[in-house]
Structures are given as structure tokens and as C-alpha cells.
Amino acid sequence: MKILIFWDIYWRIWRNAFLKELPILKQKYNPDFIIVNVDNLSSWRWAIENHILELQRSWVDLMTSWDHIFDNIEKIKDYLNNPNSKLIRACNYYENDEFKVPWKWYKILEKNSKRLLVVHLLSANWLRDLVYNPFLKLQEILKDFENEKLDWIIVDFHKEFTSEMYWMALSFDWKISFWYWTHTHIQSNDELILDNWTWVINDIWMSWSLFSVIWADLSSVKSRFFTWINKWKIEQSLDNRYVVNWAFIEIEDFKCINIEKIRIRWKL
Fold first, then answer.
1. How many domains would you assign to the chain?
2. In terms of DSSP bridges, do strands 178-182 and 152-158 run parallel, antiparallel, or are they unpaired?
3. What's this model's pTM, rounded to 2 decimal places?
4. What does each C-alpha distance from 169 to 156, 176, 199, 260 come to in angstroms?
5. 37, 7 Cβ separation under 8 angstroms
């Protein structure tokens, strides 16, 4: 099984960069599945439906979100309610009998009689949403799926602390084929294979303008760093020098046998 994973494609310029590079990457790697994060696909207030559909038409098999999924809900709810939606939310929001968080939190992708389970988790530390303990939630998920015939399991864990990543990875070694962590906005240099063939990487990074401050134009965030006052409007960087980051992985017999971390710097 060959999989390409892209993280956090940011706004119009970098949507175009992704769509420009994708045919080249598909030809080079011949992936079975492509997984993309779309949380900032349209803006920092999450994706809108026509941009989601644009990726879907480009042979994206699954889209993950993270902690902004409900910010722009009026512009995406019709797609999310569609049973054929390719988008999943984080699985560990609190729920009870009176209120169930809508939409899917996992997806099973199938090809050539092989089945891949993708799960999306949010950290309970330092993110804005108060969520259920992700470690306990993953234990529950694995128990729920223990009678399913699954050939691979991938987990997208959106977090702040590397300590969470390593504890989670070591605790669930061999139960997960591939872990990747996100949110720190820096492509890490720590991809490794654990004793029982689980592969991990701490952060895949983003696809955005090369010279920016987390997508923002440099001059528009200057006041924040000088004064700590957060009242002036932040402007998107329009620098057309972009960086595209992704991970290519191969999994066989539930074991991850290859991971390649790739970065493209280019001009539109």
C-alpha cells in the first residue's frame, strides 16, 4: 500500500501549488491513496465546499480537519452531511445522549480487497477545544474495531507537545501502522521506525508561502510582536515562492516499510 499525505494546504496560492504538483507526484509515486488536510484550505476559518470539491475532483481520497472544523460550518455543512463525504473530523469531542457531534470521525479506504482505517485525534493540551482524553479514546477505538478485518491503521494526531507523540507512539506500537503528528507548523527531522514496525513522524508541516509568519504577511504581524496587542488585521502573504510538504509511506502486512519526507520549493 502506497500513500501520499499532505498537511494543511493554505489558501488560494497554495491550493494552486498543490494542484500543480499533484499530477507530478502521482506519476512518480503511483499512490493507492492520497490524504490531505483541509483545515485552512479557504482561510484560517476553514474550508468551503467548492474548494473541498476541487480537491475531490483531483483524486484526493480522504480529507482531515483539526481544531477549526466548525468555524465556517454554514458553508460546509451540506457537504459534511453527504454520506459520500470524504472529510472526517476529530474523533474525541465530548458527546452524550442528548447531543452527538455530527459527521464522521473515521474512514475505511478500500482497494484490491485491502482495508485502511484512518483516525483523526485532537490533543487535550493547549488547543482551544476541550476534548476527551485522546489516549483513552484510541484505546476505545481499537477495541471497537478489533473484529474488523483491517490491513492498516493510520492516525493523524493534532497536538502541541512532542511528549504526547512519543508516549502515544510507544504505547500503541504495532497496533498502528503509521502515526503522523501536526500543528507545530515545522517539518520535523525525527521520522523513525519503532521496534514493532510502527513508523512515526512528529510533523509533516504545511503547504504555504515560503516567506511568511504562519501564512501571514510580515508587515501585518509586526505590531503583534512589538506590542503584544492583537487588534490589527492580519493580511495573507502573497509571496509566490511556496513550499509544499508531504510524506510518502509504504505499508505491507500491517508494517510500515518505507517513509519518505519530501519538500518542494518553487514559484508559481
1. 1
2. parallel
3. 0.86
4. 12, 8, 9, 19
5. yes
pLDDT of residue 258: 86
CATH number of the domain enclosing 7: 3.60.21.10
Neighbouring C-alpha atoms within 13 Å toward the C-beta of 18: 30
The answer to whether 123 and 140 have CB atoms below 8 angstroms apart is: no
Taking CA atoms, 162 is separated from 39, 113, 167, 177, in Å, by 21, 35, 9, 19
Residue 106 has a CB neighbour count (10 Å cut-off) of 16
Mean pLDDT, consecutive 10-residue segments, the chain of 268 residues?
84 79 91 88 75 88 82 80 87 89 87 91 79 92 92 85 79 86 71 82 71 80 83 76 78 84 73
Residue type for position 100: K
**Measured CA distances, 189 to 201, 256, 260 (Å):** 8, 18, 11
| Whole-angstrom distance, CA of residue 138 vs CA of residue 119 | 9
Which helix H or strand E contains 33, and what residues bound it? strand 33-37
| Residue 14 identity | W
DSSP structure class, residue 234? P
**Domain coverage including residue 211:** 2-267
pLDDT for the residue numbered 208: 65
